[in-house]
């Protein structure tokens, strides 16, 4: 079991505020619901801007209703004009108009940290981003990000390269991912299910860090990407540097997956267990 440590709120004496900008998952395992759980479980205060309402469960996505951009903008104004947001996590944005609206407000308010999870497909394989919006994502939003967190299919969509089938393929994608404009990239290797370990590449402009954890085999992986990126934003808001924030978050998601089978949610890919400790806020050690 991981050691228990207290949250680090070095940016201020108050609990840091993290904004998640994402879609709603009606089953509660991914999207805005997973984000709020992860931010809360890792010791920060979560607020939200909803970009789309999905009709979704553990078996798949049956409908997506994008929120009109003017209402996304009103939500963003309401949050940024009142709350001292330390970090922003961006998830599902649905279409190019919403992407442009979010990018405009991030440029206006300039939050200290921006983590973008380039959500394009659900765990079930259902598309969550219109193909026409990929260009807007790459041109308007990714250059504003301190970190983007693509999985392997998303990395392929962003670079035009084939989906990696092994660690060598992942490494060959590094140069192209550096061209996205983001300050750093976390390329997640979770889809390489044949590997004993789950290896991620944290790509900086001048070097790359290999982050590894023992692979945990579970069908209950709904919302893993949302959860990881939200935890990273939470730890950044608390004053950790990027490598520390990613390392802590990888340990957190590993434990959330390891405890996922304690839940019995749905008939398909169930959610991870965000609150695997039920007696307060706990942080995994490195």
UniProtKB/TrEMBL annotation:
One of its GO terms (molecular function) is phosphomethylpyrimidine kinase activity. GO terms for cellular component: cytosol. It comes from the Bacteria. The keyword Translocase does not apply. InterPro entries: HMP/HMP-P_kinase_dom, PM/HMP-P_kinase-1, Ribokinase-like. Its EC number is 2.7.1.49. CDD domains: HMPP_kinase. Residues 25-273 form the Pyridoxamine kinase/Phosphomethylpyrimidine kinase domain. GO terms for biological process: thiamine biosynthetic process; thiamine diphosphate biosynthetic process. Pathway: Cofactor biosynthesis; thiamine diphosphate biosynthesis. Keywords: ATP-binding, Kinase, Nucleotide-binding, Transferase. This is hydroxymethylpyrimidine kinase. It comes from Vibrio albus. The lineage of its organism: Bacteria, Pseudomonadati, Pseudomonadota, Gammaproteobacteria, Vibrionales.
